[in-house]
Amino acid sequence: MGTxxxxxxxxxxxxxxxxxxxxxxxxxxxxxxTVFDAFRHAADHHGPRPFLQTLPETAAIYGIDAGTIxxxxxxxxxxxxxxxYREAGYGHGHRIGLLLENRPAFFMHWLALNxxxxxxxxxxxxxxxxxxxxxxxxxxxxxxxxxxxRLEDLRRSATQAxxxxxxxxxxxxxxxxxxxxxxxAPLAGSPxxxxxxxxxxxxxxxxxxxGCVLTNFYFLRAGGGYVDMGGICVLQPGQERLLxxxxxxxxxxxxxxxxxxxLIGGCIIALDRFHPKTWWDSxxxxxxxxxxxxxVMPAMLMGxxxxxxxxxxxxxxxxxxGVDKLRQADFEARFKLPLxxxxxxxxxxxxxxxxxxxxxxxxxxxxxxKPDGTLVLRIVDDQGQEASVGTPGELQVRAAGPxxxxxxxxxxxxxxxxxxxxxxDGWFHTGDIVRQDAEGYLYxxxxxxxxxxxxxxxxxxxxxxxxxxxxxxxxxxxxAAVPDPIRGDEVLALVVPRSAQQAEHIARSITxxxxxxxxxxxAPGYIAFIEQLPLxxxxxxxxxxxxxxxxxxxxxxxxIDLRALKRRQD
Length: 570
Hints:
Number of helices: 17
Distance between the termini: 35 Å
Structural class: alpha/beta
CATH architecture of one domain: 2-Layer Sandwich
Mean pLDDT: 89
Number of strands: 25
Strand order of the largest sheet: 2-1-10-9-11-12-13-14
């Protein structure tokens, strides 16, 4: 693979190449930068080193070859893809969807398109018709690159959305068999750090998912913030091997993991998903030095029988969020590695990232560290006043310096009102409840927003409700979160039925219908039938009372358990 030394000048070049992009580790600067620029220079300096590794288990699931792709090999493939896209007329200002899971093809197409100034819209393979219809309509894609098994599915969704856009496979794109670009010509000028790099959708508190417009600078700042973090999370240029089972449709894997590895010439080992029984085999086989996790993962790994190989690995730290605070110490003792709890959002990116990466980490207290000089925060109580030390309140953040939005998302696409509300009074309102101690350490408490978080996936209650209301047996419905020992939250639907029928039969039918319209994890895991929903005088659902009712019914056992129906669909 090659082990040549990396000069300090080269590392500095990765970390900052424009006057707009300056991290504390360097003062190097240049006129502009894109994600592709960073990758190209990584290829120049780390050509023979591994960029991507696909393990045999993941390769078998995906039906692709296992093995390693070096930076030089990836650069050659990216350059060829980029030529095909350019010759077909795609360029600066266009958007192209990618439904490619965690396959190497995702990285290749993203980088090839970024070189031209094309924004990518990652599409989850879990999405079904209702979600795809909305995404096509809202994002104004001009092309979609998708897996062969989803080709006809996506073509139907594009047609239903009224958009005559091409939907092709990655192999067709690689062969240059691309449909001509839309009549709208690419924007003038070369892409820069302010050019839209990706449009990532995130569930909000109400309504449809919001499209977060993310620039090249957002991605570079997220990766650079990770590189710059230090403490337990010191990254060694050219040496790190980062294992992640997290989906590339989310900012963690796409902006944090991938960009950090590109900036230091590290290797990304992307799994198709988290497999508890073979996790440690993957860790050892890949020789991972870092892995990323969500809270559900440590819980599942602790449930495995003890093994003499538990601590036999090369991992220096795990980086993630949501570990069960009652299990963190036991996990670290058993597997002999620290779990660094962190906090960020799609909207904040590296503009406001927190992590307990320095000792003391306050293990077992849901500590997410304390702010450094890159961000400013305040904690606001229910009365809108800054909370006193130790008092829970909503976390509000902004970047330090003259530009409070530096490194954050640019806006919610086509939603000026939501963008303005998120930045009310010059602070980004996270909707997360935290408390801060006298020494400045922050502790995550709960989510203020009406979002159900199941196995790391944010689920909008309103989005699920809008689909459930389409079922003929449903007269009214409200969705709430109930606790799940493994997944954090599970979805419970309170259903007012149109007529009296066999409850279990209707419940099963409702969940099965939902599974055809939404990603499997959004479907109700439990359903309870009630006579009426708690409403306000203006006929709005009283969310607080819905939550109370859901918990009381769940606790009494007056719910129908449908979790067995919730399975990934091919």
